[in-house]
Request: fold
Amino acid sequence: MTLGYRVAEWTPYIGVARAKVTSNTSEPGLNAALYPSPFAEGAQLLNGMLDELLSSGIQQESLTVGARWDFRPGMAFTAQYDYIDMRSGSSGGLINQQPEFTPGGRINLFSLALDFVF
Reply:
């Protein structure tokens, strides 16, 4: 859930999120028989990734605080801080895990973004 309030060209916001997937969750995914090749192979690959994600037992909670500044028409600058708590030894939503990665723990993430329309 995210809540923000616009004040002139500024939009401060706060958000909270929770993800919990139990290991007995299942999903049939895409029916690969409905797609021509090579899309059928892609559907099977996506189904495998979904099964792996659902069997991983993801548990994660996060808190987000940020502000958006619309400094010109069609241009905005955003600063955001995320506190992510991966529960019970879970890897959370992290998918590119390096060999030295240890599941569980907490992450502090700060990001800056420039958005524009052209």
Observations:
- The chain has a mean pLDDT of 87.
- Residues 39-55 form the longest helix (17 residues).
